[in-house]
């Protein structure tokens, strides 16, 4: 098996605004990251993914970039970035940047020029269309805000924005735009970064003629015409060539991607992406977006996990994650806020021992949970606000707020909880956003001191994973497929085995070790309960609330 460096790694994602404030202005920054690099290293991760650090008006918190070659003044400057990069490298941590090129900010100089007229150097940098008989150019909805078109009187034309109005889509069919992207990549690669996480990269090539979408599909009606578009592979091939000049890797975000489509990017000699983020396993309690909720079903989660493990086996490499800045906190969704420690540690086990490169999002390693703000006015995320004001408007305010509590991206964007002092030790100033009041109990300082904390359990899992060839390379086989309470899978590599058993139940459940040709001698390697004596020498046993166990068997 080909063993590229990223396959052995685990990444930590930083959403900088809420990570750690190093200069007391209430906003997380690179000075703060610098101070916390040894903490990150201590987790046992091998790299950092930075969500956008670039100058941005923050209509979508950094995903609306106004300068690709600089650092947002809130977060520092290029000098401190270089310092962070070099210290990260000294510690053996890779650093990957977010590359957001489906769209820019409407305050990017390219757009400011582009909207001035139909015939300037930048007129074709974006997707401009005339209206049709006094109507919009097509029926596409924006994923974030109303329709996907905005009128600009100077050009008497509309521009396309699949996301917010302040995020106009770039015209990737224009070779000059692709050249800009490649130059931006080189700028950061020359500085020493190790790769990119490429934002909604599967959306960058739009179908010729921009045909109407299916009108009965809300929000995503245009998606069949901009996802995996006609020239996507050619364009990604161009970007790949840049990466190949460096020892760099590319991780593409693929919203709604299928295994088949993902393999078209990641498999074979001519692969353009090394890894992809898919969303299948994030829909065990929702449909398409967390705002369209349904009750959590373990079977859905297991089906998604197993589907990707099998489909990519031997052909491509999985990306494993449960949280990032786009999804509410996982304990509040798939675990239980009554059993934070138990479910937080169990959730760690359930994904960290699958085959793939794991990502851990800031705060996940201490079990941070969703925030519940009183009024919609306290929320700041553009998509949460839009959902609230667009859907289910006839429901009571309480019901609509419940949906926001369960779905808002703001829940994963509250300041990191470092200790139990004011503002959770995140800042000495006034925090830019609400701190989750549970910081008095859930914080890094406390968990450092408790041997069985979620934080220390993540460390144990990562340390074990790193030295286990079975965990890194092994085949995957699922047991208890039809159980709505237990997720059990086995990994096998060269006759050695790992058995991972997770209970998603709030009450004890029994399980039996799987039957096999060769009776295996299972040795308990990890358990999220301190007292493990109950398991000695028996083939059938009970799992306690949200209990997770990892066993090994060597030949
Ligand atoms: C995906 C990013 O992760 C998300 O935060 C952002 O809002 C959209 N892409 C648009 O850039």
Structure notes:
There is one protein chain. This protein has 555 residues and is α/β, with parallel strands linked by helices. It has 3 domains: 5-102 and 175-461, Glycosidases (TIM Barrel, Alpha-Beta Barrel), CATH 3.20.20.80; 103-169, Oligo-1,6-glucosidase, domain 2; 473-553, Immunoglobulin-like (Sandwich). 27% of the residues lie in helices and 16% in strands. It is built from 15 helices and 20 strands. It has helices at residues 30-42, 78-90, 109-114, 175-191, 223-226, 232-244, 259-266, 298-312, 330-334, 340-352, 382-390, 397-407, 444-449, 454-466, 469-473, and strands spanning 11-14, 47-50, 94-99, 128-129, 149-152, 157-160, 195-198, 249-253, 275-277, 286-287, 289-293, 319-320, 357-361, 475-479, 486-493, 496-503, 509-512, 523-527, 540-543, 548-553. The strands form 5 sheets. Strands 9-8-7-3-2-1-13-12 form an 8-stranded parallel sheet, with helices on one face. It has a 5-stranded antiparallel sheet with strand order 14-15-16-20-18. Strands 4-6-5 form a 3-stranded antiparallel sheet, with no helix packed on it. The longest helix has 17 residues, at 175-191. The protein is globular and about 75 Å long. Residues 60, 63, 100, 163, 199-200, 253, 325-326 line the site of 1-deoxynojirimycin (NOJ).
Helices and strands, with pairings:
Layout: E1 11-14, H1 30-42, E2 47-50, H2 78-90, E3 94-99, H3 109-114, E4 128-129, E5 149-152, E6 157-160, H4 175-191, E7 195-198, H5 223-226, H6 232-244, E8 249-253, H7 259-266, E9 275-277, E10 286-287, E11 289-293, H8 298-312, E12 319-320, H9 330-334, H10 340-352, E13 357-361, H11 382-390, H12 397-407, H13 444-449, H14 454-466, H15 469-473, E14 475-479, E15 486-493, E16 496-503, E17 509-512, E18 523-527, E19 540-543, E20 548-553
The chain binds 1-deoxynojirimycin (NOJ).
């Amino acid at each position: 098996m080909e063993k590229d460096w990223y396959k052995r790694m685990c990444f930590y994602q930083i959403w900088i605004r809420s990570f750690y404030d190093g200069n007391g202005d209430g906003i997380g920054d690179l000075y703060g990251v610098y101070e916390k690099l040894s903490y990150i290293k201590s987790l046992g991760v091998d790299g950092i993914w930075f969500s956008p650090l670039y100058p941005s008006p923050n209509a979508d918190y950094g995903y609306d970039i106004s300068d690709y070659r600089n650092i947002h003044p809130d977060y520092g400057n290029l000098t401190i970035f270089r310092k962070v990069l070099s210290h990260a490298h000294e510690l053996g941590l890779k650093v990957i940047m977010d590359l957001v090129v489906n769209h820019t900010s409407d305050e990017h100089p390219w757009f400011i020029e582009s909207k001035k007229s139909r015939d300037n150097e930048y007129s074709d940098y974006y997707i401009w269309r005339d209206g049709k008989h006094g109507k919009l150019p097509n029926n596409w909805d924006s994923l974030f805000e109303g329709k996907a078109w905005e009128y600009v009187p100077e050009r008497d034309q509309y521009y396309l924005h699949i996301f917010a109005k302040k995020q106009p889509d770039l015209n990737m069919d224009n070779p000059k735009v692709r050249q800009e992207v490649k130059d931006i990549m080189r700028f950061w690669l020359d500085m020493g970064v190790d790769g990119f996480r490429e934002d909604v990269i599967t959306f960058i090539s739009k179908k010729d003629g921009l045909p109407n979408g299916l009108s009965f599909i809300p929000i995503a009606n245009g998606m069949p015409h901009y996802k995996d578009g006609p020239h996507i592979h050619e364009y990604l091939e161009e970007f790949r060539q840049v990466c190949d000049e460096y020892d760099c890797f590319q991780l593409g975000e693929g919203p709604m991607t299928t295994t088949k489509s993902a393999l078209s990017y990641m498999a074979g000699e001519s692969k353009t992406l090394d890894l992809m983020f898919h969303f299948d396993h994030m829909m065990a309690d929702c449909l398409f977006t967390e705002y369209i909720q349904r009750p959590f079903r373990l079977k859905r989660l297991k089906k998604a996990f197993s589907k990707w493990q099998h489909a990519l086996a031997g052909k491509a490499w999985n990306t494993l994650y449960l949280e990032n800045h786009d999804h509410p906190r996982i304990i509040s969704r798939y675990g239980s806020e009554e059993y934070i420690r138990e479910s937080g540690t169990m959730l760690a086990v359930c994904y960290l021992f699958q085959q793939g490169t794991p990502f851990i999002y800031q705060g996940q390693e201490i079990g941070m949970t969703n925030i519940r703000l009183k009024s919609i006015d306290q929320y700041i995320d553009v998509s949460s606000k839009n959902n609230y004001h667009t859907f289910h408007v006839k429901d009571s305010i309480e019901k609509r707020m419940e949906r926001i509590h369960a779905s808002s991206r703001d829940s994963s964007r509250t300041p990191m909880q470092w200790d139990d002092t004011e503002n959770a030790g995140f800042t000495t100033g006034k925090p830019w956003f609400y701190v989750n009041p549970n910081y008095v109990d859930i914080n890094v300082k406390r968990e450092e001191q408790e041997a069985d904390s979620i934080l220390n359990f993540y460390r144990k899992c990562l340390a074990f994973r790193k030295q286990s060839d079975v965990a890194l390379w092994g085949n995957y086989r699922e047991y208890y497929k039809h159980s709505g309470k237990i997720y059990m899978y086995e990994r096998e590599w060269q006759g050695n085995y790992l058995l991972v058993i997770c209970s998603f139940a709030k009450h004890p459940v029994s399980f039996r070790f799987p039957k096999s040709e060769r009776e295996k001698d299972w040795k308990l390697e990890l358990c999220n309960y301190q007292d493990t004596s109950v398991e000695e020498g028996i083939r059938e046993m009970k799992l306690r609330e949200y209990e997770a166990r990892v066993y090994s068997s060597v030949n």
